[in-house]
Structure formats: structure tokens, C-alpha cells
Write a structure and sequence with these properties.
Layout lengths: L1 H8 L5 H8 L2 H18 L6 H13 L6 H9 L6 H12 L8 H8 L7 H14 L1 H7 L5 H11 L5 H16 L4 H4 L12 H5 L17 H5 L24 H12 L4 E4 L9 H16 L3 E6 L9 H13 L6 E4 L4 H13 L3 E4 L21 H12 L9 E4 L11 E5 L13 E3 L1 H11 L4 E5 L6 H10 L6 E5 L2 E3 L6 H9 L14 H7 L3 H11 L6 E3 L1 H15 L2 E2 L1 E2 L2 E6 L7 E7 L9 E7 L1 E5 L20 E3 L4 E10 L5 E10 L9 E2 L6 E8 L27 E9 L11 E4 L3 E5 L8 E8 L8
Parallel strand pairs: 1-2, 2-3, 8-9, 10-11, 12-24, 14-20, 18-21, 22-26
Antiparallel strand pairs: 4-5, 5-6, 6-7, 13-23, 14-17, 15-16, 18-19, 19-20, 22-23, 24-25, 25-26
Helix pairs in contact: 1-2, 3-4, 3-5, 4-5, 8-10, 8-11, 10-11, 16-24, 20-21, 24-25
Family: Belongs to the class-I aminoacyl-tRNA synthetase family.
Protein name: Glutamine--tRNA ligase
EC number: 6.1.1.18
Length: 774
């Protein structure tokens, strides 16, 4: 079994997927045979993940195992390279159960060897859009874009669907321009039939679990009122699993007198690291739930581990909460309650629910911890020893206070207090014993009269201990509700691993724009509204959510498209001299800040005899489908009102084109060019930093994907620095974190490293469309 598990993970299956596969005997046998045959054909046991994925898909769908060898060979020899081709292959074999297979007929039926070029896709989409142009202009973005996709796919059967979709999006945007407010108005929905009462009762907490990002309710809509089926304040006892004691109703009555029935939540981060994208969901959920229901939310620092806490983390956490648009009702600290927590610990001992233990730290690790020989020591003895712990009469690790309870995961008698001779950033040397999370968390919730203790799914195993401790001390007990964590692919967010990335020089610091910490996303230029919108689109789900960065980037584009003024920048400049303009010619060109809505303002840029364009916007040799500048093809200059034509190409001693001499004429009199390109004149020199994914694989922490560890998976092209890019003068007064769309290039944000002498821009995201074809 272990050998088969290893065989399955060797082709790229995660360990969990491999284990699930092993439970299916028929699938396991077929997949094992396919892998063995693949090894034989390849002459090696190394099967890359692309082939492995197709082998798994084939094994799970192939009905006639007599065809297994034939199909495996075609996959391994890379004749079948996509799910589309595999589906065609399976259909072909299904239609010929007895016939000997003709390789040539198979190849033809499955598109073997067919290569679809970008130009073919562009032409096919252009033809489809031309066919529906009248209706598109009438209905705009309400038009069924799936129809365009379907017709383009019919014309190019073996084309990559994603590439077709990108081309459709780009050409539609070129035809219609960005979405207007009218386009964004929702169509009135037909009234839905009333949902049966039993169906409502059976619904999960999830309101919007579909991460495909269809039509999404706003976060406030998802969190308001009855949407989550949470208990009402004071009705904690109606929640499944809530422990009711003889004093529960009296405690709830007192709680309601204090809160007035108001919802109270808290966001309780540990101040030992920087917040990341997963915390954004927690912030939105905790603060958002309170806001949506006219409640309050505390920012409470869980500062019970003085060894790892630093002031910079306290400051950064509060900054990020406020950056996302939330204001805490109050900023509190677990350390505010150190004396009260200590007094409660003494009470817990007196009640017979806690004891001082001398087992060593290493003995307490894991789940098969031997029972403590001190579990039944007399209460008075534990009281004396706990006081001695407080007075510093024991060495670190020599004694702990443990609670007499068994957690849901089977862990017995969790530690409530441990000794640490480390000064605390707020209380100094006043304490040398510090409470643990398991002890502190629920008690601070109770002290602050929290109504809904919202936490991620991994804390579900601690729910019973949460209730037990409040009830053991006869205190008001809040209700713990769990939700799924938000994870992103192509990144790591653990503090330990980010520190490793910083220490090894892979990234500069916690705010390196390639990371997904909130400070890094702010530095890269992600607007807080986009992050909040992303959290709303992911939805409030019980199940853990893993999404890809491009879904977050789509939210960023939506916000920046409406908020980032346009400018022109040239990353790889090519000098262009317009010979039919005078040497001293200069005029001001007015360029709209938002071309789709010119009422939002404009800026002027100089236009002179010498301009600079992108090197990629000129080709010496004409190629099919290329629409920009060539010796035989003129091009328009955006906003300038001119069309330029090449007269002379100037090269250096190595044959590289270094300058073009052109002539210009008014775009009103010239034949309409196939494209308009951006340009700059009398520009500012700036530095531009282009970012890509930091890791090569989706799950850099997964040993089945990256056997050598996440540090071996760094993308060598994750950062490209262009030190002498050119940008128009409209950005010269920009402030740190100001955002722009550099036309046809992408969205950019001004980096804090900028100086008065040199601006530095971070690329936030690329444009959705292909910048080479506008």
C-alpha cells in the first residue's frame, strides 16, 4: 500500500488525493498499470505533472482497459496534451470497441499535431464579433458573451479555451470600452420560488461559497441579520453544543444588561508577525459582522508570548485594520487582564479543575502524552506551588499549571500557565508566568462580553474546552463559531517561512510586493477596497477556501479601472524623430485621465519633434497579424492626433535598431491606422519593478509538488527591474502609493523607495487584455 501511495504521488497527486484513489480498487489498478507502462515507454520513473494529470484523468474515465496501453503511449509521447484532446480520444475509442485502431484516424480525430496560433484565434474572434457587432453595440455588456466563445470554439476546435476567452474579453473591451455605470446595473431578477423550510434548515453557514466569482452579494448583505443563522445575543443556549449550567440563564441576563443586546465581536491577532491575505478575511468577517448588524468590534492583541512580540507588529496590525476601512470600537490587550486571569487561575485550582505539574515540555508534546503523576495532588499544594511560580522560585520549564480536561482532539490537560523570564513589552518584569492561548482566549472573550467568537476552522477542536473553562469558573460563556480559512496558491504565509525568505535574501522584508502580507499588497498597489471585494466574492464559508491569485487580481483591476488615472510610460524606449516637424516644435497634448469618462478630468503632456515609443511597437519585418509600426505600415499616436510613417531606420554597429526617422500627418486626413500606440516626449526617467509569482508551483509547501522544500521553488523571474524607463510628466507630483494606469502596459503604484530625483513604480497588475494588440 505504501509503495502504491508513493507511486501515485510521484506523478503529482497530493497525498490526500492519492489516499482517496487507493480506496477505489478499480481506479487504483488502472492508474497503477498506466504509470508502469509510462515508465516503460519513457525509460525512466520520472513522470512530469502534466502527463501525470492526464494519466489520472484517463484512468478515471476509461471504460475499456484493453485500450489503456495505446492511450498511455499517446499521452506519454505528448500526442495527447490537453483534456480536450483526451475527451476526443476517449470518445474515439468508445466508438470503436472491436476495430483495430488506425493511428492516422485517431490522430485526425484527436487533433494530434495541430497548433493554433494567436493570430488564428485573433482572426476567429474578430470574425465572430463582426458578425454580432450590431447586437453587441446595442446590448453592450448585457450581451451573452458565451455565444461569442462558443462560435469561436466551433471555428477552432483545438484552441485553448482560456486563450479564446482572453481574446474575446480584449476585443469586446476594444469595441465597447470599459464598463459604464449603466453596464454595472444589475438586471432585475425574476422572483424565485419560496425555498422549502426544511431546505433552509439544512443550509450551511456558507452564504456565497462559489469562488467562481459569479454575481456576488456584498459583504454587508452576506453578514446582515439572519443571513448566517447565528444566534441572537442572549440566546447562546440555542446553539448546538453550547453547555448549559444551572447559572447559564442568570449569566446571560447579566450579559444582556451590560451589552443592551448589542452584537460584540473581536479580532484577536498575535503581535508576532505581519498580517496576510488570510487575515483580511478574518478582519472583514469580525469587523464586518459587527458593522452589518449595528454592533461593535474590538481589536484585541493576544500578547501572551513576550519572546516573539515586537512593537512594530502592534503598529502594523492596527494600520492594516484601518487601511481596510475599519475602526476598532476599542483596542485592548490580553495583558490588560493579566491580574484578573491570574485570579481566575487561582479560583480554578480551588475548584479542583487545575494543578501544578512538573512534566517537561518535551514530555507534553504530541497526543500520546503520559498522564501526569501530579494530577491528583492536593488543592492547597497546587495553590502554594502556583504562588511560587508567580514569585519566580522555579526555573523555566520546571513547572506549569494544567487544566483537568480532555480536548476534542484527545489532548489531555492543556497547559494554562508557563514560566518565561522575558520582560513583557507592556508589563515589564511584573510577571514571569504567562497564560496560554487555550486559557486566555475564552476568558478575555467573556470579560469583554463578546457575543460571537468568530475563528477559523482549526479551532473547532477547541470549542468544547472553550465552553468548559467558562463554565468551570461560572462565567458568562460566549458562542464560538468557525469559518473556513482563506488560502491562496503560489505563496506561503506562515511567519516562520516568511522569516526564512527574508533571512535568505529571497525577499527584502515582510512588505516585499511578491508576498501576500497586507503590507506587501499595499506596497504593490492593491487598493483596500479590492481586497475587501475579494473577501466578499470568496464568501463567508464553513469549508476552507483555496483560490488562485488571478481572482484577487481581477478584483484589483475592477477597482483601479475606475480609480487609477491614465498616464503614458515606455519601459523599453526606442527614439523616434519626426522629421517634418521643426527643430523647436512643441505643443501641449491634452490626455483624459479616464478615457471612458472624460468628465473626470485630464492632464497635458508635451509633444515635440522627438518622442519615444516601446521597442516592441516596431518591427522591421512585417508579420501576419501584427498591427503596429513597420516600414510599410503606419500607426497612430494616442491622444496626439497624428499618424506616423517610417522613413528611415538607424542601427548601431551591432545591427540593433536605435532610432527611427518618421513623418507625421494629421489623423483626420490620414487613412485610419490599424492601431494606436502610446509614446512619451520630454519624459521623466523612472525605475519600474515588474513582479511575477514568487513560486513556480501552486503549492510550494506540498512535498508531493516540491520535494526539496519551498526555498527550492523560487521563480528566478519573480522580479525584473527596469532602471531607465520613461514616463510622462503628469506623474511628477505623485505621492507614495498613488496609483496609475500606464496605458497599454498595466497598473502601477509609486513605491516608498522613490526620491525627489527618481520615481520608482511597482507594477500592481497587468492589464486584462493583451497590451500588444490595442
Amino acid at each position: 500500500m505504501a509503495d502504491t501511495l508513493e507511486l501515485f504521488t510521484s506523478i503529482g497527486l497530493s497525498e490526500q488525493k492519492a489516499k482517496e484513489t487507493l480506496k477505489n480498487g478499480a481506479l487504483s489498478a488502472t492508474l497503477k498499470d498506466a504509470i508502469v507502462q509510462a515508465h516503460r515507454v519513457l525509460g525512466t520513473s520520472a513522470v512530469d505533472k502534466a502527463i501525470g494529470t492526464l494519466l489520472y484523468s484517463m484512468a478515471s474515465r476509461l471504460k475499456d482497459t484493453k485500450r489503456l496501453e495505446f492511450l498511455t503511449i499517446n499521452i506519454v509521447q505528448r500526442k495527447i496534451t490537453s483534456e480536450l484532446q483526451l475527451a476526443a480520444a476517449l470518445e474515439f475509442l468508445k466508438s470503436r470497441p472491436q476495430d483495430p485502431i488506425s493511428q492516422s484516424e485517431f490522430d485526425e480525430a484527436c487533433g494530434v499535431g495541430i497548433v493554433i496560433t494567436p493570430e488564428q484565434i485573433e482572426d476567429a474572434v474578430e470574425s465572430v464579433i463582426k458578425k454580432h457587432k450590431e447586437q453587441l453595440l446595442k446590448e453592450r455588456y448585457r450581451f451573452n458573451m458565451g455565444l461569442l466563445m462558443g462560435e469561436a470554439r466551433s471555428a477552432l476546435k483545438w484552441a485553448d479555451g482560456k486563450v479564446i476567452k482572453n481574446e474575446v474579453d480584449m476585443q469586446v473591451l476594444h469595441l465597447l470600452g470599459p464598463k459604464t455605470e449603466a453596464d454595472l446595473e444589475k438586471k432585475p431578477k425574476p422572483q424565485k420560488a419560496k425555498v422549502a423550510e426544511n431546505d433552509v434548515k439544512n443550509q450551511e453557514m456558507s452564504v456565497n461559497g462559489d469562488t467562481g466569482f459569479g454575481e456576488t452579494k456584498s459583504l454587508m448583505e452576506q453578514l446582515r441579520g439572519e443571513a448566517l443563522k447565528f444566534h441572537k445575543p442572549g440566546e447562546n443556549y440555542t446553539t448546538e453544543g453550547y453547555m448549559v449550567t444551572p447559572n447559564t440563564m442568570k449569566l446571560l441576563k447579566k450579559h444582556l444588561e451590560i451589552t443592551g443586546g448589542q452584537i460584540r465581536t473581536r479580532f484577536p491577532p498575535e503581535p508576532n508577525g505581519i498580517l496576510h491575505i488570510g487575515h483580511a478575511k478574518a478582519i472583514n468577517f469580525n469587523f464586518g459582522y459587527a458593522k452589518a448588524n449595528n454592533g461593535i468590534c474590538f481589536l484585541r492583541y493576544d500578547d501572551t508570548n513576550p519572546e516573539k512580540e515586537e512593537e512594530k507588529y502592534f503598529t502594523a496590525i492596527k494600520d492594516m485594520v484601518e487601511w481596510l476601512g475599519y475602526t476598532p470600537y476599542d483596542v485592548t490587550h490580553a495583558s490588560d487582564n493579566f491580574q484578573k486571569l491570574y485570579d481566575l487561575a487561582v479560583d480554578l485550582i480551588r475548584r479542583g479543575h487545575a494543578y501544578v505539574c512538573h512534566q517537561k515540555g518535551e514530555e507534553l508534546k504530541g497526543h500520546n502524552v503520559p498522564p501526569s503523576p501530579w494530577r491528583d495532588r492536593p488543592v492547597e499544594e497546587s495553590l502554594v506551588l502556583f504562588e511560587r511560580m508567580k514569585k519566580g522560585l522555579f526555573a523555566e520549564g520546571e513547572a506549569t499549571l494544567r487544566m483537568k480536561m480532555v480536548m476534542e482532539d484527545g489532548k489531555m490537560d492543556p497547559v494554562a500557565y508557563r514560566i518565561k523570564y522575558t520582560p513583557h513589552h507592556r508589563t515589564g518584569d511584573e510577571w514571569c508566568i504567562y497564560p496560554t492561548y487555550d486559557y486566555t482566549h475564552c476568558l478575555c472573550d467573556s470579560i469583554e462580553n463578546i457575543t460571537h467568537s468568530l475563528c477559523t476552522k482549526e479551532f473547532q477542536a477547541r470549542r468544547s474546552s472553550y465552553y468548559w473553562l467558562c463554565n468551570a469558573l461560572d462565567l458568562y460563556c460566549p458562542v464560538q463559531w468557525e469559518y473556513g480559512r482563506l488560502n491562496l496558491t503560489y505563496t506561503v504565509v506562515s511567519k516562520r517561512k516568511i522569516i526564512k525568505l527574508v533571512e535568505t535574501g529571497v525577499v527584502r522584508d515582510w512588505d516585499d510586493p511578491r508576498l501576500f502580507t497586507l503590507t506587501a499588497l499595499r506596497r504593490r498597489g492593491f487598493p483596500p477596497e479590492a481586497i475587501n471585494n475579494f473577501c466578499a466574492r470568496v464568501g463567508v464559508t464553513v469549508s476552507q477556501t483555496t483560490t488562485e491569485p488571478h481572482l484577487l487580481e481581477a478584483c484589483v483591476r475592477d477597482v483601479l479601472n475606475d480609480s487609477a488615472p491614465r498616464a503614458m510610460a515606455v519601459l523599453e524606449p526606442l527614439k523616434v524623430t519626426i522629421t517634418n516637424l521643426a527643430e523647436n516644435f512643441k505643443s501641449d497634448v491634452r490626455a483624459p485621465d479616464f478615457p471612458a469618462n472624460e468628465a473626470k478630468g485630464s492632464h497635458t503632456v508635451p509633444f515635440t519633434r522627438t518622442i519615444f515609443i516601446e521597442q516592441s511597437d516596431f518591427r522591421e519585418v512585417m508579420e501576419k497579424g501584427y498591427k503596429r509600426l513597420t516600414p510599410d505600415q503606419p500607426v497612430g499616436l494616442r491622444h496626439a492626433g497624428y499618424v506616423i510613417s517610417v522613413q528611415k531606420i538607424i542601427k548601431d554597429s551591432e545591427g540593433k535598431v536605435v532610432e527611427l526617422e518618421v513623418t507625421c500627418c494629421s489623423s483626420e486626413t490620414a487613412e485610419k491606422p490599424k492601431a494606436f500606440i502610446h509614446w512619451v516626449s520630454e519624459p521623466l526617467v523612472c525605475e519600474v519593478r515588474l513582479y511575477e509569482k514568487l513560486f513556480l508551483h501552486k503549492h510550494p509547501e506540498d512535498p508531493s509538488e516540491v520535494p526539496s522544500g519551498f526555498l527550492s521553488d523560487i521563480n528566478p523571474h519573480s522580479l525584473e527591474v527596469i532602471r531607465n524607463a520613461l514616463v510622462d510628466t503628469s506623474v511628477k507630483t505623485a505621492k507614495v502609493f498613488d496609483k496609475f494606469q500606464f496605458e497599454r502596459v498595466g497598473y502601477f503604484s509609486l513605491d516608498p523607495d522613490s526620491t525627489a530625483n527618481k520615481l520608482i513604480f511597482n507594477r500592481t497588475v497587468t492589464l486584462k487584455e493583451d497590451p500588444g494588440k490595442i
